[in-house]
Amino acid sequence: ATPVGLLTGTGRGAQLGILIKGPQVLEDTRTVDTIVLDKTGTVTTGALSVARLSLLDTAPEGLTDAGLLRLAGSVEAAGEHPIARAIAAAASSGPGTTPVTDFDSAPGGGVRGSVDGRRIVAGRPAWLDENGIDLDDAAYAALRGEQEAGSTAVLVAVDGRAAGIISLQDTVKDGSAAAIARFRSLGLRPVLLTGDNAVVAAHVAEQVGIPAEDVLADVRPQGKVDAVRRFQEQGRTVAMAGDGVNDAAALAQADLGIAMGSGTDVAMEAADLTVMGSDLGQVATAIELSRRTLRTIR
Ligand code: ADP
Ligand code: MG
């Protein structure tokens, strides 16, 4: 579907940069009682930075930190996720990158490709497993250590062997806590939904005032759809805000799908409403404004 109009009524929607797909969208905002929020890029800036590189004992002989970053960055240069952008940027400004061939990605899982004749797989443990890479206890322990320190940790395999971990740090957007308070005052229950690990998710939730029972972590893209559907089956009317390829199906499943304009085209295509820019407060404004506009129309 393509956007068919700007939020009209007062014309304020256009001024505020809120794009909706049709008049029915306004109707849907009225009954929404739950707002599901993607974490990375929606509640947090998604402007991650590489905080640490660690090599595993199973790494190929002679591999260095810089070599690990160059190989992973070369593959991630073809990726779209905020994680991909961060790793590619760190490689570019450090050891450099070389072109990747046979690139492939699994939304919510990771990436893979060939760099300098070496086979690279990067992502979460399940993605490495799908690619036939064994993770020993030491690899899991190292991964947990990084996560407990609050990092989003990406495993990197080289030529079929677990080689290292790239740890990334994200920050909560300035306006996110205030926006979440506004959702509550609009009568919406905020839920944090993420493919990232539970420790990082809990840390972000605490900063923005979402209680632990409303945090769903380690959720795959299809799991995000199922989570939205479960709420709907409980009789809730669900808005979902997201920015990623991994959010698209859940945005389509939600009663009101909201995309961040700073995010991917795929998310915007799947959503009913897009807010320009990256401020979560815009999402609260969109809901307030459309409710007010509806009152004016009636
Ligand atoms: P979120 O819901 O927070 O936006 P995703 O569902 O997109 O997160 O990703 C979940 C997890 O999958 C990430 O935390 C990471 O471990 C892994 N992942 C996703 N994309 C990539 C990528 N391009 N490179 C490495 N790992 C990735
Ligand atoms: Mg995201």
From TrEMBL:
It is found in: Cell membrane. Signal peptide: none annotated. It comes from the Bacteria. Belongs to the cation transport ATPase (P-type) (TC 3.A.3) family. Type IB subfamily. This is Cation-transporting P-type ATPase B. It comes from Arthrobacter zhangbolii.
